[in-house]
Each structure stands twice: as structure tokens, then as C-alpha cells.
């Protein structure tokens, strides 16, 4: 059956009672949670479990903002479960060790969880399913982290992931709409079952604090995104209040205020599964039909969700999707190895205020606007530093609240012109893009207080300010704030030619002819055409700055 998987053990054949565990990973919610409903259905008892790997908790690859969001989400989930006379069981350890023990201790007959469509999750879940089968525990898996069951998308494309967004949209046009979201779980849903809760539950299974996990919180500022399903549902209704945008169906215009986190941002909640993508999809569809008097919405209305779905499907059968080596969709570009330049970029010390302010915001808030992501990704890779997208992806993976493995890797390949997007003659200018996005420079001043008094005329190019202006602004360039680490006009021309040579070699190499047709690569224009099309040179500020 589509969207459903079940591996049978043997224990249910001899046991009259069903004792179930629902294993939370993502999908940290009670609404639209088909796997949790399966655990509850016809059960004598059920427990909701979240396994916290202590090694993972100590990993430097996960930033403190992400941990705070996760713990807040678990606290919120536990609070919601309390309202239906249940609790969340947070258990520290590795999944295989934990389940080997609690399957026996709790006399478990069924394990349910939400399907993880990514390669690492598939491998982990396969091992747990094998363990469950060995111990006579049935396993029930349901798809709800994506709009569609990704197997349906692959089957419609000859069991291959679609590698262009155009092809992806074509496939979706031939599929039924995504399933409608299931109702939230309430007290009536669990009236015929129970959760065994001991008096020392908080001591044994409570949600830990950041301090208990070893984090220093002294310098941690207030959160811009409070984790949890409760906040997610409040945000979706604020998001949908923008009826004027839906009514006219215009893309929201870029404004300086959009560079700051808003109370309607949803991406972290989708990533952790605090918000069902199907609920978001159908609420937006309902509102569109209401405003447009029954008219069916275009696919583009759900662009944020569909791009997420596209990258999930592209990565679903590719365990090397997050690296160049062994990655069949990635162009093999000979990037430079430059740890010093990478560190300056990651720490917001490039000397370009627009780039540095974005990177400081990323580290401080755990979020940056999607166009800001484009700007810093282009700067690191094909635009200026010629450093591999793999390195930038790792930084985003550590710091971004909303980062998904598939979406993160796919977006970095796209923005570096390594896959999915090949118009490398379009490039972001680290000066002009900032001027257009925030003409007053307030965003830069907020995240780079060292430039607080720099006049607007020089805020994006402070190195051009006369010495007297720098002194008056209490910021001497080269001392208080770094000089630009590269000459953008020069290196961007050089890098564009390097990229042209890479793609030219692809198009003339017969061994990759099939690959280039699959990715729908463009014709490679002559170099003088690049300069006509690319607006980042000089002081131009055309739409090309936004790709």
C-alpha cells in the first residue's frame, strides 16, 4: 500500500495484548502523525520515545541554537502528551542498544515510526527493523515528513529521481494531490489505551537542559524561533493571514525587514517536523480557493514545499549526495583548498560587510534569509573564493536551524553550479546585492556594530571611505574591521572563466554526454557574452545581481 510499510515479527502471534512504542525522530507533533496513530490503535499500552545519542549531543557539528530548538520542541511535545495523560520518554543511548533493552523490559509487541527518506536514516532504520524482527516485534512505518511518498515520485520517473525541477513538476502534475493531513491526537484518541508512567519519570526520562548536555549558555542570546508544535501552529496561522499576497499571488517583494527573522517563518518547524508539510500545503490551498472563489492553485503557490520535495527525491537513493566523490549528479569542479579563506568566511571576516553580517547572523540566530544564503554561498564557491560547496554545506549543517541533509546539499550544489543550475555567468556581487537588499545598511549595522557609525554612503564599501570619515566612524579599515580579502571584480572574472572551462570540457567529453543531457546543460557562450550578461562588475545593480 502506498505510503505504508510494515515488517512482521512473531511476537504478535502469541501475545494477546499490544504494547506499542512510537519512536519520535523528526515528526515532533501530534497533528498529522499517522505512525503515532498506528501505535495507539488497538493497543493496551503505548509509550512515546525519543532517543538522545550522547555522542551526538557532544558533537561540535551541531550548534547550540539547533540543540535549543530541539529541546524546546521535546518539552512542548511532552507538554502536549501530558494533556492526554501520556508523557515523552527521552532515553540516552544508541538506538540499537536502547531498543534491545526496552523491547524486553516493557514487553513491546509493536514499534512505529515516521519514514526517514534520507540514506542515513534508511540504513539506521533497516538495522532497527532487523533487531525488531529478531525479537518478535512488529514494525509499522508511515510516510509523513514529505508531501508525497517519495517512492511514488520515483516510480513515475522509471524508478529514477528527477534531476531537473521542470521534470519534477511534470511528474507531480500526473500524480494525485498530496494526502490531506490527519486530525490531531486528542484525549478521545487514547481513551482505550494508556501510558505507564512512574513517579520518577522526570528523573529517568525527562527532557535534559542545555547545561546538562554540556553547553555553556552564558553568551546565548534570546531565541528568534521557539521550538515546538504549539509555536508552529501559531505561526502558520500568522503566515496565512497574508491574504493580500495570496489574493494577488505576487511573490513577496524583498524588503530590508525581511532580512531579520519574522514571526511567520516556518522552515525550522518543517525541518524538525513540528509542522506537517501536508497541513501547510492544504491550509494554503484552502485559503487560495477561498480568495479565488474555488479556482485551483498553480503549483508555484507551494514553491517552498516543492523545492524541499524536489531535493528530497533527488537525494533519496544517493548516499553520496552530500559530497563530490561518488556523487553521480555533481559536476567534478577542481575547487581550491584554502582553510584560511574558509575560516574568514565562516567567522564573518571577509572584509565585505554584506557577507560578514550574514555570517554573523547565521551564527547568532541560526537563520538567514534565503537570498542571503545565495549571496554567501556564491561568494564562497564560484563567485569569489573558489572553495568547495562541501565546506560551506558543513557550516550550514552546524548552524542553520532549518537545515535538512537533502535540501542543504542540493542547495549548495545548485548555488555553486555543481548540479541543478548551470547559468554560472550569473553571479552575486557582495557589494551591490547588499545595497539593493538594504539601502540604508541597517542590517549590517545591527550585526556588525563595529560599522555602527559608518555613513550609509560607505557602509557596503567601508575601505573606500576617506581616513577622516573612518576616524569619525570610530572604525579604521584594516585595524578595527578587515580590508576585503579579495578583489571581487578580478577574481569573479577569473572564476567565471574557470567555470566556463569546466562546463566546456563536459560538453566536449563524449563519456559524459549522457550526463549532460540528463542535467539539461546550457550551451556555453563565449567569454565576452559573460561580461554582457553578468552585472556584478562596476557599479551596476540590475536584476542579474539576484540571479
Automatic annotation (TrEMBL):
Binds 1 FAD per subunit. One of its GO terms (biological process) is negative regulation of DNA-templated transcription. FAD binds at residues 304-311, 402-404. The keyword Flavoprotein applies. It comes from Littorina saxatilis. Keywords: FAD, Flavoprotein. Belongs to the DNA photolyase class-1 family. This is Photolyase/cryptochrome alpha/beta domain-containing protein. Residues 18-147 form the Photolyase/cryptochrome alpha/beta domain. Its cofactor is FAD. One of its GO terms (cellular component) is nucleus. InterPro entries: Crypto/Photolyase_FAD-like_sf (IPR036134), Crypto/Photolyase_N_sf (IPR036155), Cryptochr/Photolyase_FAD-bd (IPR005101), Cryptochrome/DNA_photolyase_1 (IPR002081), DNA_photolyase_N (IPR006050), Rossmann-like_a/b/a_fold (IPR014729). Pfam families: DNA_photolyase, FAD_binding_7. GO terms for molecular function: DNA binding; FAD binding.
Amino acid at each position: 500500500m502506498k505510503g505504508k510499510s510494515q515488517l512482521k515479527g512473531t511476537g504478535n502471534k502469541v501475545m494477546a495484548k499490544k504494547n506499542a512504542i512510537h519512536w519520535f525522530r523528526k515528526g515532533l507533533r501530534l497533528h498529522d502523525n499517522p505512525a503515532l496513530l498506528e501505535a495507539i490503535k488497538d493497543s493496551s499500552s503505548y509509550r512515546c520515545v525519543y532517543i538522545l545519542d550522547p555522542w551526538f549531543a557532544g558533537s561540535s557539528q551541531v550548534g547550540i541554537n539547533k540543540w535549543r530548538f530541539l529541546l524546546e520542541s521535546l518539552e512542548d511535545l511532552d507538554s502536549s502528551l501530558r494533556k492526554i495523560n501520556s508523557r515523552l520518554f527521552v532515553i540516552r543511548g544508541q538506538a540499537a542498544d536502547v531498543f534491545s533493552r526496552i523491547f524486553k523490559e516493557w514487553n513491546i509487541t509493536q514499534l512505529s515510526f515516521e519514514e526517514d527518506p534520507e540514506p542515513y536514516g534508511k540504513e539506521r532504520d533497516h538495522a532497527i527493523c532487523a533487531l525488531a524482527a529478531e525479537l518478535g516485534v512488529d514494525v509499522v512505518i508511515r510516510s509523513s515528513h514529505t508531501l508525497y511518498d517519495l517512492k511514488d515520485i520515483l516510480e513515475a520517473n522509471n524508478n529514477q529521481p528527477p534531476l531537473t525541477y521542470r521534470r519534477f513538476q511534470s511528474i507531480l502534475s500526473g500524480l494525485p494531490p498530496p494526502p490531506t493531513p490527519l486530525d490531531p491526537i486528542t484525549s478521545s484518541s487514547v481513551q482505550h489505551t494508556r501510558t505507564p508512567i512512574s513517579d520518577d519519570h522526570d528523573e529517568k526520562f525527562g527532557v535534559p537542559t542545555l547545561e546538562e548536555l554540556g553547553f555553556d549558555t552564558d553568551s546565548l542570546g534570546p531565541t528568534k524561533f521557539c521550538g515546538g508544535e504549539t509555536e508552529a501552529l501559531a505561526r502558520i496561522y500568522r503566515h496565512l493571514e497574508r491574504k493580500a499576497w495570496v489574493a494577488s499571488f505576487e511573490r513577496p517583494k524583498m524588503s530590508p525587514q525581511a532580512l531579520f527573522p519574522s514571526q511567520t517563518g516556518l522552515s525550522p518547524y518543517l525541518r524538525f517536523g513540528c509542522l506537517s508539510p501536508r497541513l501547510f500545503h492544504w491550509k494554503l490551498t484552502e485559503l487560495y480557493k477561498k480568495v479565488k472563489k474555488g479556482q485551483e492553485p498553480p503549483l508555484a503557490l507551494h514553491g517552498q514545499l516543492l523545492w524541499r520535495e524536489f531535493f528530497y527525491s533527488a537525494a533519496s537513493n544517493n548516499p553520496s549526495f552530500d559530497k563530490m566523490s561518488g556523487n553521480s549528479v555533481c559536476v567534478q569542479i577542481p575547487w581550491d583548498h584554502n582553510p584560511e579563506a574558509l575560516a574568514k568566511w565562516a567567522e564573518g571576516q571577509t572584509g565585505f560587510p554584506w557577507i560578514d553580517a550574514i555570517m554573523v547572523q547565521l551564527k547568532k540566530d541560526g537563520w538567514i534569509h534565503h537570498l542571503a544564503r545565495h549571496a554567501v554561498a556564491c561568494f564562497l564557491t564560484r563567485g569569489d573564493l573558489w572553495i568547495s560547496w562541501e565546506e560551506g554545506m558543513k557550516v550550514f549543517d552546524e548552524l542553520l536551524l532549518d537545515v535538512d541533509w537533502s535540501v542543504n546539499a542540493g542547495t549548495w550544489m545548485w548555488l555553486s553550479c555543481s548540479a541543478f543550475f548551470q547559468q554560472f555567468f550569473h553571479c552575486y556581487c557582495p557589494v551591490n546585492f547588499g545595497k539593493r537588499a538594504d539601502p540604508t545598511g541597517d542590517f549590517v549595522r545591527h550585526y556588525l556594530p563595529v560599522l555602527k557609525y559608518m555613513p550609509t554612503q560607505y557602509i557596503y564599501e567601508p575601505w573606500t571611505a576617506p581616513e577622516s570619515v573612518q576616524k569619525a566612524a570610530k572604525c579604521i579599515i584594516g585595524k578595527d574591521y578587515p580590508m576585503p580579502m579579495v578583489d571581487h571584480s578580478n577574481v569573479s572574472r577569473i572564476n567565471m572563466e574557470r567555470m566556463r572551462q569546466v562546463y566546456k570540457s563536459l560538453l566536449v567529453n563524449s563519456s559524459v554526454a549522457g550526463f549532460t543531457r540528463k542535467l539539461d546543460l546550457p550551451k556555453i557562450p563565449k567569454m565576452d557574452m559573460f561580461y554582457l550578461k553578468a552585472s556584478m562588475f562596476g557599479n551596476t545593480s540590475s536584476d542579474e545581481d539576484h540571479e
